[in-house]
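tokens incoming
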């Protein structure tokens, strides 16, 4: 097994750390275990082990009804 010689430090919100550690404890893992697993998964996947996506732009749905109807009418005008 390779020697562990690097440190990873991160500043996180106290509540996030506490809540995460409670869940990890139930799984029988430490925060260090979870970080090590995460880093192994990054290496395995050659990227993050989950999809990262930008939130879809739904701003057109928030426009007033008249504005949306006008846009639709313009598409169907002869």
């Amino acid at each position: 097994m390779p020697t562990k010689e690097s440190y990873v430090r991160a500043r996180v919100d106290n509540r996030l750390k506490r809540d995460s550690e409670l869940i990890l404890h139930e799984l029988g893992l430490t925060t260090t275990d979870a970080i090590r697993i995460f880093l192994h998964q990054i290496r395995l996947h050659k990227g993050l082990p989950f999809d990262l996506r930008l939130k879809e732009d739904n701003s057109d749905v928030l426009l007033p009804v008249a504005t949306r109807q006008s846009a639709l009418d313009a598409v169907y005008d002869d």
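note: Residues 1-51 form a domain with the Arc Repressor Mutant fold (CATH 1.10.1220.10).
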